[in-house]
Amino acid sequence: MELNFEKELDRLNPYQREAVLDESPACVVNANVGSGKTTVLITKIQYLHHIKKVGYEDMTVLTFTNKAADEIKSRLLAAEPELPADKLRGFGTFHSTALYYLREFLPVEDLGYSKEFLVIDPEEELELAYDLIRQHKLKIKYKNRLKKRLESAMAVREAEKKVSKYQDDIFELAGLLKEEKAKQDKMTFFDLLENANFLLKEAEQKSVSPKWVIIDEVQDSDTQQLVFTDRLISRGASLFAVGDPNQVIYSWRGSAFQIFYTLKHKYQAKELTLPINYRSSTSILEAARCFLQNGSPLTGVREPGSKIIVRRQYDAFQDACYLAARMKKLHEEGISYGEMAVFYRLQSQSKIFEDVFLKEGIPFEVSLKKTVGDVPVLKWCIRLLRFSLNTKDTASGIYVLSSREYGEGISGKKAEEIVRAGQPGRSLLFDRMCGLVENCGELGNEEELFTYFELDRYLKPVSASFHEDSDAVRRLFGIMYAYVREQQAERASGMREFVNSSSLYGLDVLREDISRQEDCVKLMTIHASKGLEFSCVFITGVNHGLIPLRTGDMEGEEEERRLFFVGITRAKDHLELSYYMNPQERADPGESRYIRMIPPRLLEHGEDIGPAVSLQELKRQVQEQKRSIAARGSEQSPEQSLEQSPGQSLEQSPEQSPGQSLEQSPEQSLEQSPGQSLEQSLEQRPEQSSEQSPEQSPEQAKQQKLVRHSRYGTGVVVNEDETMLEAEFEGYGKKEFIKAFSELEYI
DNA sequence: GGTCGATTCTTTTTT
DNA sequence: AGAATCGACC
What we know:
Layout: H1 2-10, H2 14-21, E1 26-31, H3 37-50, E2 59-63, H4 66-79, E3 91-93, H5 94-104, E4 118-119, H6 122-136, H7 146-155, H8 170-183, E5 186-187, H9 189-202, E6 212-215, H10 223-234, E7 238-243, H11 259-266, E8 270-274, E9 276-277, H12 282-289, E10 299-300, E11 308-313, H13 316-332, E12 340-344, H14 350-360, E13 364-366, H15 376-389, H16 394-402, H17 412-421, H18 428-439, H19 446-452, H20 455-458, H21 466-487, H22 491-500, H23 502-510, E14 521-525, E15 534-539, H24 554-568, E16 571-580, H25 593-596, E17 603-605, H26 615-635, H27 639-642, H28 646-650, H29 658-671, H30 673-683, H31 698-702, E18 706-709, E19 713-720, E20 724-729, E21 733-738, E22 745-746
Parallel strand pairs: 1-7, 1-8, 2-3, 2-6, 4-5, 6-7, 9-10, 11-16, 11-17, 12-14, 12-15, 13-14, 15-16
Antiparallel strand pairs: 18-19, 18-22, 19-20, 20-21
Helix pairs in contact: 1-3, 2-3, 5-9, 6-8, 7-8, 9-10, 13-14, 15-16, 15-18, 15-22, 16-17, 19-21, 21-22, 21-23
The protein binds a DNA duplex through helix 5 and helix 9.
């Protein structure tokens, strides 16, 4: 064993070795980006076990994500395959460790819980809260933001709980909710830590007393987690914590920037540094150094590497087109798509990249956290199923009947009456829900289920989102039927199981158009990129107002800088930054000052404007998009859009029927933000209108139709086909519009 | 139940 | 700066 360990130690650099061999009872390691933080942490654990003879069961290893915990555990098991897994029960996230303590050692009965308590997700807690508001007739403001409001109300100390900021009953609700959760034997993620903290303070018995507390990414600790750590340390544990104050990007969610330093002082911890970065080329590191905030040393060991490429783009759409071409080329040069990543500041920025990459046949994956609860129609549908499968769930029944968006739109009071009375004949939808269990044996597929509930009527056929809504519902039902088949369960109970765990299936319902290949480009927010690394990183939208995002205070501004630091240090070999001259939303045109903060000698400016996208190209893309939407609408087979190969998308002639496209266009104009940018790209680059399509139809052009535009006034239609319209305006010249997206008025 | 003016929040996300 | 939402008033 010891011999093995010596070998491990030899692989470390002197700084890493010092951290592992450190003997102080409390030690905080200031680990720079890419400096082998996890390796040090794991070697430290092995050192404590093999050399210091501390049992694994006497260590508590805390991480923030399951992913990090799994990595540590699997690396330990890889080095020592004989290790019984139950020795590592104290290894996990803060929450899972708290759960372990509560179940195994702490007297939860003191808080009114049983040992069999359930862990519930935030959604379920919110439902409990709404029930309580109704039952107790509480006055709560900003109900739609109740989740956030409750969170902050629970974080407030007892003494300050007198009057709420909005003069409502939020604290009363928090108290009632706490009682109700204990009564129903349910704990939220928050409760797990809160209750563990409470009982660790009170419990006399030394049932929980690890010898070592080892924390990964300490800089992300919030107050609750810090208290948890403190409870363990005051029970006699030594501390070994690793983190990077330059990577604090979650302070808005409760982790304090100074935590690294308060830890140091509170426990007189020894501070060590890991300065050597093994990940990035020195050019990238040098750029990163411009965004360091506490002057810590950051040393590179790699070659200078290529310069950082800065690109000026017209807008996000053009950037996406450029990136698609660039990535194809890199792929041809032998770099796998899995080594490339696109980062952006806001979730909403991903859509245009998804659309373009899909069209260009670039395999990609978007990291986003969306559940069925985020899509109103699916939320409604899940409640519909929940009540149908368990008519005791009256809250769901009332929700379904009284929803303003969907269903019969019955008033809340009347819905409650109907549901509580349980008598048939007063609402068709209610009767159908009550009859599902009886009838579902005959409903063999999603279409029959859809028809059974007559959802064509209840999903508001007149609303703009009807097609999208019914698609989503069909997909949800489809997944449910697949699940039931797979489980080989009896249909009603299979459905019940599916509905109970529906939050887990949210992703599959929503990402129907995302390629599932292994080797694919990753699209994500900079936040989501933390802890990852890629050979090629493209950060898009480096405009002021986006990166950095316009923030109110200095602290926010500093966090934006750390965020950008995190983003650029993900890159190993190649980094590209882009900014827009015509940004869509909140951003200002032109490069962010963050780009000007990087020494010019490290930068190389790409072509001023990326490869020009011809009108022809744009047209084709829009048509194809329409086609795939139409295809989805009529045959509900999402696989179609998945199987697009790059070759396919190039030579397609429009096969859609004109009637269909006209019917659908108003809905699209509401839903499709990339379309708007398409239109704008065209509007403001009239010089491109010379590249005319060969498919123009002369008959239409002759008719001298007039249109009115909000900005250009009245114009004469020069050219028109299914998707495009070209008109000449006095004083502005010829402009091309995409019919579906422009708000032109026909005269 | 509908309109007006005032007030509040807006982004990032894990468990 | 603009959207969403609240409360007051009719």
